[in-house]
Specification:
By secondary structure, this protein is an alpha/beta fold. 31% of the residues lie in helices and 22% in strands. Mean pLDDT is 94; it is low at 1-28. The radius of gyration is 25 Å and the shape is globular. Helix 3 (73-90) packs parallel to helix 10, helix 6 (149-157) crosses helix 7 (168-180) and helix 9 (251-271) runs parallel beside helix 10. The strands form 3 sheets. Strands 4, 14, 15, 16, 17, 18, 19, 20 and 21 form a 9-stranded mixed beta sheet that branches. The chain folds into 2 domains: 3-71 and 333-454, Lyase, Ornithine Decarboxylase, Chain A, domain 1; 74-331, Alanine racemase (TIM Barrel), CATH 3.20.20. The structure holds pyridoxal-5'-phosphate.
């Protein structure tokens, strides 16, 4: 390495005296604009390595292997606090429920429990994970468009806080299960206000043509209110809607709140229905790339609470408890996926592939939704970008591309790539396609790391089989 840079010579001498190694910083070294996508306080250390939660990402990859999902606990806690504070500062009677399908395991359930949030579950399996850390059942909300009889029975026996009823079959079934147990279950009705949140078709849920909820427009939601009020095994507390995800503007929430509140007023007049709770769902967006410029949580809180308060006053309805259900926005930025680079392939004149040891088996979002990601070379975090590459997974599908056309420093076999904003909907959608063991999950916190879920082994792959 040429010793032309005076600063480097000086640092090298200082380092030699201190007995440590200092790496040459090229004149093009700069703070990457991608760094703010990573968990809070992510830095580049003196070795030029990415440092997450006080831990060197390259060392984490070496110690725990790759693909590795690293979550910064400080960022997870900060996001929980952020939602609670932003909403309750404007509307004290707010309940924040973490939508656990975005990312759940025992450590995460424990963290959400300690943060005092509620928990949305969409299966009895998610409820069971929460129960394994003694998550308070009364703070669990049970969602889903086809809750099974066994699931509903189990949820009742476990003392679930709310069942968010999706359809008439479920309403009748829940009522009879509750009456068998001499219980009265607290419920919300999920309604579809027919508002398009302008997001991917697969994650649009609040329009008329949706498998979720009772449509308001067809009169079916009104029928459900009447029926729920008649039944003895359930107590109708209020209404729920979830428009989809991610919702990159506040207007869909405002439109939906207006539709649902005006309709709730009609239901009050027609059926004497009192809405004690209003649950406006999740869908709060996060920035995945440096181009994403999104409103803050405070802006959503202002829009939701502002619209609601205005309308309540005009209609002289009593203020209900407000519930919000962020999933992605709690966990996405806290998670970083680490991969090791293997094969490098240049299709001459066409494309330069950088192949990594994971892919759609741990992150199916790019092929499923066309999701875009950024990346940094964890062990070259200060180096300048010199070429355009495509980051390919190792699964046997041509669609298994993690990032298409990204500028990176010169990448070599053995380098570690870090993909930010991988905390939501990656690990939970992971599969064993190609018999790839699912990755390990590590939590980092102020310089310490611990495995919260071990990597699957080959025995895990065939251990459930019989000959
Ligand atoms: C998935 C889901 C959420 C969370 O969505 P995010 O986009 O992750 O915030 C909230 N509520 C319901 C009912 C959901 O199904």
């Amino acid at each position: 390495m040429p010793e032309r840079c005076v600063a480097c010579v000086r640092r090298r001498l200082t380092a030699a005296l201190a007995g440590s190694t200092i790496y040459h910083m090229t004149s093009t070294a700069r703070r990457s604009p991608r760094l703010p996508l990573f968990p809070k306080d992510t830095t580049v250390n003196s070795a030029g390595h990415l440092e997450i939660g006080g831990c060197d990402a390259f060392d984490l990859a070496r110690e725990y292997g790759t693909p590795l999902y690293v979550f910064d606990e400080g960022t997870l806690r900060q996001q929980c606090r952020e939602f609670v504070e932003r909403f309750s500062a404007r509307y004290p009677d707010t309940m924040v429920c973490y939508a656990s399908k975005a990312f759940l395991n025992r450590a995460m359930a424990q963290l959400v429990k300690d943060a005092g949030l509620g928990l949305d579950v969409v299966s009895i399996g998610e409820f069971a994970i929460a129960r394994s850390v003694d998550f308070p059942s009364e703070r669990v909300y049970f969602h889903g468009n086809n809750k099974l009889q066994d699931e509903l029975a189990q949820a009742l026996d476990w003392g679930v806080g709310r069942v968010v009823v999706d359809n008439m079959y479920e309403l009748q079934l829940l009522d009879s299960l509750a009456r068998e147990r001499s219980m009265v279950q607290q419920i919300l009705l999920r309604v579809t206000p027919n508002v398009d949140p302008h997001t991917h078709e697969f994650t649009t849920t609040g329009v008329l043509d949706s498998k979720f909820g009772f449509p308001i427009a067809t009169g079916q939601a009104a029928e459900a209110v009447k029926e729920a009020m008649r039944l003895q095994g359930v107590n109708l507390l209020g209404l729920h809607f979830h428009l989809g995800s991610p919702i990159k503007e506040t207007a869909p929430y405002e439109a939906a709140i207006r539709i649902v509140l005006e309709w709730a007023r009609d239901m009050k007049r027609a059926n004497d229905f009192d809405m004690v709770e209003l649950n406006v769902g999740g869908g709060f967006p996060v920035a995945y790339t440096v181009e994403d410029n999104l409103p803050s949580i405070a802006v959503y809180a202002d829009a939701i609470i502002g619209t609601m308060s205005n309308l309540l006053m005009k209609m002289s309805l009593l203020p209900p408890r407000l519930t919000v259900e962020p999933g992605r926005a709690i966990v996405a930025r806290a998670g970083v996926a680490l991969y090791t680079v293997g094969a490098l392939k240049e299709v001459t004149g066409v494309r330069r592939f950088v192949c990594v040891d994971g892919g759609m088996s741990d992150n199916i979002r790019p092929p499923l939704y066309g999701a875009k990601y950024e990346a940094l070379v964890a062990n070259k975090a200060n180096e300048a970008d010199v070429h355009t590459v495509t980051i390919a997974g190792k699964l046997c599908e041509s669609g298994d591309i993690l990032v298409k056309d990204i500028q990176l420093p010169r990448v070599a076999t053995g380098d570690v790539l870090a993909l930010p904003v991988c905390g939501a909907y990656c690990v939970p959608m992971a599969s064993n396609y190609n018999a790839i063991p699912r990755p390990a999950i590590v939590f980092v916190d102020r310089g310490r790391s611990r495995v919260v879920r071990r990597r699957e082994t080959n025995e895990d792959l065939y251990g459930l089989d019989n000959l």
